[in-house]
Amino acid sequence: MMNRLKLLAILVAILSFVSLGAALLWMDSLFEEPEATFVSSIAGEVGAKSVLAIFAHPDDEQLITGLLIRAKEQDAAITRMITATKGEAGTPLPKISRTAELGIIRHAELLKNGYALGVKEQIVWDYADGGVANADFDTYVGDLVDKMLIWKPDLIVTFWPNSGFSDHSDHKTAGKAATAAVTRMKIDHPAMAPKAIAYILAPRLMMDKFGGAVGKRVVANQPTPTHAMPGEGWAKIRGWDIHASQSQYVSKAYGFPPWFIHRLYDKEHYYLQFID
């Protein structure tokens, strides 16, 4: 009887281990995009020596840590970033400051994380968090063009205008403005126009299955990614520690801590559009 119980216990343990492994493989597959061409660096694929990321909020850069790190360290490119807002209307997770000071805190977290990622220059503008879509669009685009004329980026990184990764109106407006600025550069300053735009995209299976109505809208309004590259998950984990006011965001969004999620969500997916 004792031998049978031991055998049963071993079988249960084996089945549990196999089930856990299958569950992890399934979860990992939700973050994959098999149709995308895998490259070691998006900047390297473009031949970019100057990269400009255009985003809406502090912590948006968490989505492109792999691109930023590899552009600098692997491709010797200069990286810069423009963030439209200070994130003052966000939700602190956890609450680490007075609400009135959240924008100050998140601004500082962004600068600190950008420095850790090797970003050479960062600009944070004063657009209202949650109200970028209500700002004067031509002014926004014109300001972006002014910076492009100074920095001469080869590669622009931003949100896909119709989905914004999370359907956030600020994200979509930032992507729309970045795209319009590149178009204006191509028309007015063709010799100085960027070579390409890399649009960061959300993992479609994960968003479709667990993103609710918002996730389904994102999937319906973003293209199939053309490229994937390593996401440097260790830097994303570090980044959530730096973004202390948002450090519980991943756990709230996915139900698992960053150290676990970024071992599954280990790639960044982009729609890479070359400028003709």
Description:
- With 276 residues, this protein is of the alpha/beta class.
- The protein has one domain: LmbE-like (Rossmann fold), CATH 3.40.50.
- An eight-stranded mixed beta sheet has the order 1-7-8-6-5-2-3-4, with helices on both faces.
- Strand 2, helix 3 and strand 3 form a beta-alpha-beta unit.
- Helix 7 packs antiparallel against helix 8.
- The longest helix is centred in the first third of the chain and has 28 residues.
- The termini are far apart.
Task: Map the helices and strands.
Layout: H1 2-29, E1 37-38, H2 42-46, E2 50-55, H3 65-73, E3 78-83, H4 102-116, E4 121-124, H5 137-151, E5 155-159, H6 169-188, E6 196-201, H7 204-210, H8 212-221, E7 227-230, H9 233-242, H10 249-254, H11 258-264, E8 267-274
Parallel strand pairs: 1-7, 2-3, 2-5, 3-4, 5-6
Antiparallel strand pairs: 6-8, 7-8
Helix pairs in contact: 5-6, 7-8, 9-11
